[in-house]
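Schema walkthrough. Field components (list of strings):
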Amino acid sequence: MQKLFPHPYLSATLLLTWVLLMNSIGPGAVLMGGFLGVVIPLLTAPYWPEHAAMKHPLRLVAYIGLVLGDVVVSSIQVAAIILFKPVDQIQSAWICVPIDLPSPEAQALLAGTITMTPGTLTADFAADGKSLLIHSLHAPDPDAVCAEIKSRYEARLKRIFT
Amino acid sequence: MLDYALSFAISCFALALLLTLWRLATAPTIPDRILAVDTMVVNVIALIVLYSLMRGHALNFEAAMLFSMTGFVSTVAFCKYLLRRSIIE
Amino acid sequence: MSMVTEILISTLLVISGVFGLIGSFGLLKLRDAMQRLHAPTKATTIGVGAALIASALNTWLIAGQVTWHEVMVSVFLFITAPLSALYLAKSHIATTVDRSKIPPTATKAPWAELRRVPKG
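Field assembly_structure (string):
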């Protein structure tokens, strides 16, 4: 079983993606999706030797919901800044956020979340994966931004992955 | 009412496309040009979606998906070329 | 078509148009190269997202068909937007950004992009 499905989440995602792409759940689409779901993880397994350890996958759904809500709020904030703030009053800042997440998958998820949410953008990461370089569009108080990212997103991701 | 909203949205995205085209012509640095192209791709996807809505048939799904894929891959390839002077390592 | 559906879809279309325009306008207005990166990643993504939701609602409530293609396109855009933003930020750091403004990392390890020698 472990040999046939080295990455079960990847297999399930591929099957779901194929069914949605075909926009039908006929036997042909399911069969082809299942075939791709078996073959692609087997072919790409050498590039991805470690297994993504997700302890509580269900909490990920709540997390995605939270992020989607934040995306809407952040877009409105950024739009307001672009429209109504004079250019010389926008205080941009580089912020270094120290992170402590176990796996590369969790770090990538946090980086993506930061880019999509209020006025911040992941610009780079440290060579050892212990800190993220963030650019904030309008941050009069950089420490508050750092604290909010740690408490709002990193703590939740830690609960998902450990 | 739907027709007015649709015309409004299409004019907004057409104007946005013109603005990004202007940006592409006048951008000061190369990463700025790549960013302008990336934004243009997203605007074109929106125009495809709105056009299908206006003509009343199903979404031109293949066109939208191909645009988003080629746009993403070309953005990353341009940036990788800038960073490493090669695309495939 | 009922009045409520029409109002809902029209509102979504107007929102999408406004956000798409603001995203491209921000590209012209903001002065700093890194600031300009913020406008398209957020405003334009929500603009296209609203247009896609309007299209999906249109086929669902008016033509009576459920289609997942809009969902697929928006998921793809949502996954790729942070990646292209990260790569654009990296190429900004490599070429134009004033490196003395960038803070040091929390540990001793350097930033991934600053390890390399700058290229002219």
